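Anyone up for a design puzzle?
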């Protein structure tokens, strides 16, 4: 890891930090710098910065770099088959069931283990230029469904659909305790946690964030919940559930450490619905959870509260979904 620093000149005072980074290092896009800022890689006077922070003359901005560069794509000798986590592809879109341990974008320390890099052959033009069409993201240790555009037009249409909340993104998670009320909406702004550079938090000056949740089933001390995003803030579901005192199991960063779940948080983007950007056809995908979810059998018998796993669809049924993981279920009495 190496770092580079630059002092904010008087002419740049008052600019947003992400725009200042583009001016200082124009070889990278503004979205690239926003990702680096979100990852805590950009410091202002030694503290992690916010993309919207207005820089002041004389401040020292430091960026931490990985010494290596991302590997170049070999378009002449591309892979012979798609990764096994690609669940659908055509000329306009790719849908993936992202495994854990895989970041979405290449970044410091993650040049090879990213969705964009591993799909680079299919996201590149014939001149070797990358055109990654990522329109929404999942955290490194969150598994599940994502749609990626393969053309600029598809990206524009999908990004607009997400902004208009026309894309359905539904998650399942296992959390500590039982939420009160059992079903509801968490409406709390999210911003950077200034006490921990890797964390986000509910803050008064954060960006608006709303998460819908339903309690599907529960065990003694734990619950299975389905969450839906109305907004898409960094770590949103994880932050909101932890803020309520019900962290996601396996989420070490937000207080959900559990000895049985050490491969990552039990948070999975299980259902994705969108209109195809070219054919205008409704596309619906449901993806299975990772294998380590089968350890839920050790929590005992689950009491089912909601018949369907995903709101707005008849299948899968909650008791069948849990039974497929080996969990014994009974109907809840309350």
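Challenge accepted. My sequence:
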């Amino acid at each position: 890891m190496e770092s580079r620093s630059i002092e904010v000149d008087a002419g740049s005072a008052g600019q947003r930090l992400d725009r200042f980074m583009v001016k200082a290092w124009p070889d990278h896009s503004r979205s690239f710098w926003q990702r680096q800022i979100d990852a805590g890689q950009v410091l202002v006077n030694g503290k992690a910065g916010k993309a919207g922070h207005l820089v002041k003359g004389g401040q020292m901005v430091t960026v931490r770099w990985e010494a290596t560069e991302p590997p170049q794509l070999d378009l002449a000798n591309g892979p012979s088959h798609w990764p096994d986590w690609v669940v659908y592809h055509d000329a306009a879109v790719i849908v993936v069931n992202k495994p854990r341990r895989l970041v979405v974008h290449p970044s410091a320390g993650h040049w090879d283990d990213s969705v964009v890099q591993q799909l680079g052959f299919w996201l590149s033009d014939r001149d070797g230029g990358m055109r990654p069409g990522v329109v929404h993201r999942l955290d490194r240790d969150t598994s599940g469904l994502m749609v990626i555009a393969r053309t600029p037009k598809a990206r524009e249409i999908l990004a607009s659909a997400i902004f208009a909340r026309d894309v359905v993104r539904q998650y399942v998670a296992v959390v500590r305790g039982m939420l009160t009320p059992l079903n509801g909406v968490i409406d709390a702004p999210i911003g950077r946690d200034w006490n921990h550079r890797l964390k986000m938090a509910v803050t008064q000056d954060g960006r608006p964030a709303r998460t819908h949740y339903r309690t599907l089933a529960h065990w003694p001390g734990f619950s299975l919940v389905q969450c839906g995003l109305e907004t898409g803030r960094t770590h949103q579901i994880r932050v909101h559930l932890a803020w309520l005192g019900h962290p996601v199991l396996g989420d070490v960063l937000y207080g959900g450490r559990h000895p049985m779940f050490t491969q990552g948080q039990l948070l999975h983007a299980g259902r994705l619905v969108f209109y195809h950007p070219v054919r205008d056809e409704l596309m619906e995908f449901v993806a299975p959870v990772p294998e380590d979810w089968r350890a839920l059998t050790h929590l005992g018998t689950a009491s089912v509260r909601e018949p369907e796993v995903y709101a707005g669809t008849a299948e899968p049924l909650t008791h069948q979904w849990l039974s497929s993981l080996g969990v014994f279920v009974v109907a809840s009495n309350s």
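A detail worth pointing out: Residues 67-73 have pLDDT under 50 and may be disordered.
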